[in-house]
Amino acid sequence: MHRRRLSALVFALALPFPLLAPSYAATLRLCTMESPVLPYITPQGQGTADLLIRMAAQELDITLIYQTAPLARCREQVRSGIADAFPAAPYIPTLAAEFRYPLQRGEIQTSHAVVSGRTMVFRRVGSSVDWDGTHFIRLNTPVLTPFGTVMPREKLQSLNVPIDANGRTMAANFQKMLAGRADVAVALETHGAQLLMQHQFAGKIEMLPAPFLDENYYLAISPAYYDSHAQLVEKLWDAISRLRYSPAYLAQQRKIVDDLLKP
After folding, report:
1. Per UniProt, which keywords does this protein have (predicted)?
2. How far is CA 102 from CA 47, 89, 95, 112, in A?
3. Alpha-carbon distances of 186 from 40, 169, 173, 174, 191, rounded to whole Å
4. CB within 10 Å: which end of the chain, N or C, has fewer?
5. Domain boundaries in the chain?
C-alpha cells in the first residue's frame, strides 16, 4: 500500500504544472463611453477598435469586461485603477502622465495604435466662420467640443479661442449649432460624417476640408494594471500591432464600418 502511494506521488510530481492546478485567464476591465464614437468604439464593445482589442485579447486568453461611463469619468476610473483600460486614447503629455502606452525607449510606437483618425471642423450652413488649417476666421462664438475630450480642447486653448465643452455628445453639439448657440464644432471625421447623414442634420451642417487634428489612438492602460501585468500588456499591444493589418481583422473591420455607418 505504501509503495502504491509513493508511486502515485512520484507520478503527480512528474505531471506538468498546469495539470496540477487550473490556470486562470487574466481579466481586463475596459471603461468605454456611454455614447458611441463611430465606427471606432461603442458602449457594447462592437466598434472597429473594440474588435481589434478583442481579437488580440482572445489570443492571450484575456477576458474583457466592459463598463460604461461619461468620458471624463472613464479617464478618472482608469487613472485611479477602478477600471484597467480605455480602448482608444491619444498619446499626449496630459494623458501620458496618467496612463500607460506602448512605448519603446520612451517613444510611442505608432504601429501599436488601435486606430488612426482625423478631427474635423463642422460648420452650420450659412455661417461665415472658416478654418484654414491653422486659424479660425471670423469666429465670434465658442467652438464646441465634447465634454471630457482632452486633445481638441488643448489645441483650442493654444489657439486662444472661446470654447464650449459642456455638450456630452457630438450630436448634442450639432443641435447647439442648429439652435444658433455656436457656428462651429470639432468632431472626429467618421462620426461627424455619419451624423451629417441623419435627417435632422443633413443639409444644415457641413464639414470643412482642412483637418483640425490627425492622430493615432491607443489602448491606454492604468498604471496599477500595467505594474501587475507588464509582460501581458506588452504582449497585448504587440498582438494589436500584428493583427491590425491582418486579413481576418480587415474583413471584419469592413463589415463593421458598413453596418455602423449605414444611413
Report:
1. Signal
2. 21, 12, 13, 7
3. 17, 11, 9, 10, 11
4. N
5. 25-115+216-260, 118-214
pTM of the complete model:
0.83
What are φ and ψ of residue 36, in 5° steps? -70, 150
The answer to whether residues 218 and 114 touch, using CB atoms and an 8 Å cutoff, is yes
CA–CA distance, 239 with 233 (Å, rounded to integer): 10
Cis peptide before 39 (omega within 30 of 0): yes
Per CATH, which fold does 118-214 belong to? D-Maltodextrin-Binding Protein; domain 2 (3.40.190)
Q: Do domains 25-115+216-260 and 118-214 have the same CATH topology?
A: yes
- What pLDDT is stored for residue 24 in this prediction? 53
Look at the alpha carbons of 258, 259, 260, 261 in this order and tell me if their dihedral is positive or negative.
positive
Q: What band does 214 get if pLDDT is binned at 50, 70 and 90?
A: very high
**Tens digits of residue pLDDT in 133-161:** 999 999 999 999 988 888 999 999 999 99
Q: Are 100 and 233 in contact (CB under 8 A)?
A: yes
Which comes out higher in pLDDT, residue 48 or 260? 48
Per-residue buried b or exposed e for 88-112, using 16+ beta carbons within 10 Å of the residue's own CB = bbbbeeebeebbbbbeeeeebbeeb
Q: What is the dihedral of CA 185, 91, 115, 117, to 10 degrees?
A: 30
Share of the chain above pLDDT 90, in %: 78
